[in-house]
């Protein structure tokens, strides 16, 4: 779905298109548990989550990283994504809406590749940061 | 706290066959409607050999393949108290349905931290290098898990 994006057309400081996901539903956490194989009941069983000190189930951090991945591959073709790293900064609870934003922080030519680095953040409706990180993509050149 | 002597330990390789249905299931759970993750013809049209893996697909061999549970068991970590600290993927080559990838999990670091609020936690950093059936390096995953105390 992502259109080809050329190195020459990307500038440092440029924002990537934002992506809003959610509200995150408990059913989605069950689906994600099955898809990923992460069956920690902290994500699917409210009683269990309360017993370990949470107000209720929390989303898998990897689901929120998945939202980040979607935001990237909606913008840049999947094949151009070379590296994606995030830090999980906050817990996501059912009912929260997550928006992924980002901006280009660097562009450079390296070993024949045209690389861009972007910072990305996933935050809830109140601006609470859930995930922050960066990714590197190798883009085609018009040259 | 976690056993520091296990820093550097490498676990037996996990062998994982990449399936198209699992890629689609992951995209569906995320709510990602990008057709390249769902339909081979759509992916081929966009220059892929088949449906590529989603950017976070490698959590499947890590969790479903058992690497993470082996690690958690070996370190005596209480899985219920585990939070995910960081995750990083480096994509070194293509991964498509039918590929058989092999990943060896290695403990890179273990450290104890105290939060500003005074609660203690152990941080365990692991790295997995995935190779395909042709012996080519296709991805590297770096994970930090946090055990709340």
Q: What attributes characterize this protein structure?
A:
heterodimer; A: 143 residues; alpha+beta; Thiol Ester Dehydrase, Chain A; 5-stranded antiparallel sheet; 22% helix; elongated; B: 149 residues
Arithmetic mean of pLDDT of chain A: 96
Element pattern of chain B in H and E: EHHHHEEEE
Assign the CATH topology of the domain at 7-24 and 59-139 in chain A: Thiol Ester Dehydrase, Chain A
Question: Mean pLDDT score of chain B, rounded?
Answer: 93
The main sheet of chain B orders its strands as: 1-3-4-5-2
Tally of helical segments of chain B: 4
* Biggest sheet statistics of chain A: 5 strands, antiparallel
State the low-pLDDT regions of chain B, or none.
none
Shape of chain B: elongated
What is the alpha-carbon Rg of chain B in Å? Answer: 17 Å
Helix share, percent of chain B:
10-25%
Give a written overview of the molecule.
The complex is a heterodimer of chains A (143) and B (149). With 143 residues, chain A is of the alpha+beta class. In chain A, 22% of the residues lie in helices and 35% in strands. Chain A is built from three helices and five strands; from the N terminus they run βαααββββ. In chain A, strands 1-3-4-5-2 form a five-stranded antiparallel sheet, covered by helices on one side. The longest helix of chain A has 15 residues. With 149 residues, chain B is of the alpha+beta class. Chain B folds into two domains: 107 residues, Hotdog Thioesterase (Thiol Ester Dehydrase, Chain A), CATH 3.10.129.10; 34 residues, no CATH class. Chain B has a five-stranded antiparallel sheet.
